[in-house]
Amino acid sequence: MALFITNAAAAQTDGLGTWNVVSGKYTFNKKWNVMAEAQLRSQQVVHDFHYYEYKAGIGYNFPKVLSLLFAMGHYKTFQPDGDFKQPVASDEFRIWEQLVLNNNIGRVKLEHRYRVEQRFTSNLGYRNRFRYRLNAVVPINNKEVKSKTWYASLYNEVFLAGEGPYFEQNRIFAGIGYQCNEKVTLLTGFVHRFDQSIAHAYTYKNFFQANVFFSFNEFKSGRERHPSALD
């Protein structure tokens, strides 16, 4: 989430931050599923926690390569130089719609994710945002990602606002994952985030990201299992 604040110096601190994600999916049948996710972020390694979010949604799978998701969530940002330090910088309720298109090039699985967000923020009022992410997943020790498979994940995501300045944020992620079994998948890596504020100030931040993804009663639909649908 980009922090739209007029004082860019207050947006972040130096050093490596942490980005912790726990998500889950419950699949009813070939078509319908529900998903939920919680995140906790810090400006430094395991301290200066300044942000959390939680969200949930309902998804629908079309045959083979296309899926839709409708979701909503709560997003809260605090001051960067302490653990949940007041005053609150941003308190946001968000609704969003998402379309994911998958295709394969040999062993490489490409995920094209398109998302439209309706954001109700405490500091800027109502705003729209558009996001596109291209994510590549490459299995390492198997031909496809399944139980006991190591895989590499690399993505780039662009955030565009509904009003100027239109370019808002860019995220680049590179990491290594492991699908332990049919229910648990792990993914760790590094995120480089670039932000532009409304005042046209630029900030950069690097995070170490750790993901745990749980899948319950997963129907054998051939859909992705790595943690990437909600973040």
Describe what you observe in this structure.
The chain is an all-beta fold and 231 residues long. It has a single domain (8-216), classed as Porin, CATH 2.40.160. The protein has no helices and 11 strands. It has an 11-stranded mixed beta barrel with strand order 1-2-3-4-5-6-7-8-9-10-11. It is globular.
SSE sequence, one letter per element: EEEEEEEEEEE
Question: In the residues, how many domains can be counted?
Answer: 1
Mean pLDDT, nearest integer?
A: 89
For the record, the CATH class is Mainly Beta
Q: Can you tell me the CATH topology?
A: Porin
For the largest sheet, list the strands in their spatial order: 1-2-3-4-5-6-7-8-9-10-11
Number of helices: 0
Report Rg: 18 Å
Overall strand count: 11
Spans of at least 5 consecutive residues with low confidence: 1-10
CATH architecture: Beta Barrel
In terms of DSSP E residues, the strand content is over 45%
Shape: globular
Distance between the termini: 10 Å
Structural class: mainly beta
Largest sheet: 11 strands, mixed, barrel
Helix content: under 10%
Give a quick summary of the entry.
The protein is an all-beta fold and 231 residues long. Helix content is 0%, strand content 68%.
